[in-house]
Structure formats: structure tokens, C-alpha cells
Specification:
It is a single chain. The chain is of the alpha/beta class. It has a single domain, classed as Spore Coat Polysaccharide Biosynthesis Protein SpsA, Chain A (Alpha-Beta Complex). It is about 25% helix and about 20% strand. The longest helix has 15 residues. It is globular.
Amino acid sequence: MIDDLTTNKILVVIMHGIKCHHRCDNIIKTWGIDIDYIFYSDYEDKLKNIIKTTNNPDYFGLEEKMLNATKTIYENFKGYEWFLFCDDDTYINVKKLFLELPNFNEEFVYGQILLHGYRQNPEVIFCSGGAGILIHNKNLEKIQNNIINHNIGIADVSFCMNLNNNNIKITHSNLFYNDTPQSKNLDKINYNDYISFHNIKTLEDMVDIHTIITNTL
């Protein structure tokens, strides 16, 4: 388990679940080697840095899982300046993340905004949890006493609704991408233009992206 007194620039906070238990290894064997991370899940495995934040393994338990994780992370990992919330099928370009981190304003939350992505209320502004949501510890602190489970079953929407309710501005960044690099028809040399890709569900695909990024740095 990561030492909760560690002082570091950033901790990656990864949504995970028992139904896709193999995905944590996809990260541990690739980009997780180069950065501090913690998985939050419906089960616990201290050897793999997996903490339990819900008993519900179903899709509609993800909202509770993520909102509980924000409290757990804030209370136990105060040594970090930034937190990047993402999914266990997200690839993080760690070197690009550290390169860009000084350019982010601590007053804002960053990610790929999905316009009109929440069908029940298209006016809701939220970031894709899969692409990653970057938040400074000051903003994580702001929401601690006013986190509401909206019971909508969509974790990233509910999380960003809590940000909006606390007057924390969400800012779109083209560095985060809510799909695979193939969906953008990216040349391999351009993979390093992004901090994140999403829907990378197999170890083979994770290794392929990791190899391309590592070899084109």
C-alpha cells in the first residue's frame, strides 16, 4: 500500500471492479510503473493498492464507489498536490502528464468535457471519467462537506455535478481523450500529444500503446 504520508506531485486514482479484476494488472505492468496510483473498488487487495469504497459490484454502484473514493483519498493521501481520477481501461501517458502539470491552474478541474452527454439533462457540464478528471487537492477539499449522491447511476456526471454545486469550474482540455488512439486515426508519432486514452481493455492493447509512446519520446 502506498504510504499515506508520501509527498508527491500527483496520485492517479483508478476506478476498478471485481468483474474486470484483470485490468489492474494491465496498468501495473505498463504505465503504472512510472507513477503513484491507487485503485478504488468493490473489493480490497492491499498488495495491488486496491481499496474498497463500496459493496456494490454493479454498474449503478459506480456512483457510490467514486463519491466515497473522493472522501477516502482526501482523508488518507493528503501529501499529494494533484489527483487524476480515471478508469481501469484508461492509458495514462505519464511523461506527458508530468510535462503538462505545471501548466494547469489549481483553481480549475480539467478533462474532456462531454457536451450534452447526459441525456436526462443535456445542460449538465461534466468531464469523461474514462478520459480522466484532474483535480487539485484544494478543490478536493472544497467538496468534502458537501458531496451529494445524486443517485443517477453515472459516476462522472454525479462527481462533476458536485463540483458545479461547489462553484468549482470545469475546464476542457484537448490533452485528455475519451477513446482509443485508433478512433482518431492517429499516427504513432502523435500518441505523445495526449495525456490519456480510454477503452484500452486488454493487456495487449495497453502494452502496444505503452510501447509506441515509450519509443517515440
